């Protein structure tokens, strides 16, 4: 596991850890009293199903400090930033979202326009009927004579006028 230290900070009697690179590795240990952690030691395999008694994993680590005069304190994050993939703008996703928003907005606008158009037409019809009755009241008398005894109800409403119960 190599570590890097800025040499300028070492001369100032200050040290700073600039980089850490770790390589994990499991080593199979047959005997706990005689452990072998060398590079040529056999790796430990972990079974897919754990044994009934459990599984003992012995772990250790080694730290190696490496002085690197090429890395300055001001550029300590460069290796992390260079290792990350650059963010690409997902133009297709943005365009797709924009089209969906426009389509849904157009649908809502169309529904609102149809509703407003019907309301305005109904309002104009009532206004025209009121004006016609104000000009010719005899039309109202003729219409009342031709009409039955019950007032006309809208067809889309449920007739609940006579639907009641007394206790």
Automatic annotation (TrEMBL):
<dbReference type="InterPro" id="IPR004240">
    <property type="entry name" value="EMP70"/>
</dbReference>
<comment type="similarity">
    <text>Belongs to the nonaspanin (TM9SF) (TC 9.A.2) family.</text>
</comment>
<dbReference type="Pfam" id="PF02990">
    <property type="entry name" value="EMP70"/>
</dbReference>
<dbReference type="GO" id="GO:0072657">
    <property type="term" value="P:protein localization to membrane"/>
</dbReference>
<protein>
    <recommendedName>
        <fullName>Transmembrane 9 superfamily member</fullName>
    </recommendedName>
</protein>
<keyword id="KW-0472">Membrane</keyword>
<keyword id="KW-0812">Transmembrane</keyword>
<feature type="transmembrane region" description="Helical">
    <location>
        <begin position="91"/>
        <end position="113"/>
    </location>
</feature>
<keyword id="KW-0732">Signal</keyword>
<keyword id="KW-1133">Transmembrane helix</keyword>
<dbReference type="GO" id="GO:0016020">
    <property type="term" value="C:membrane"/>
</dbReference>
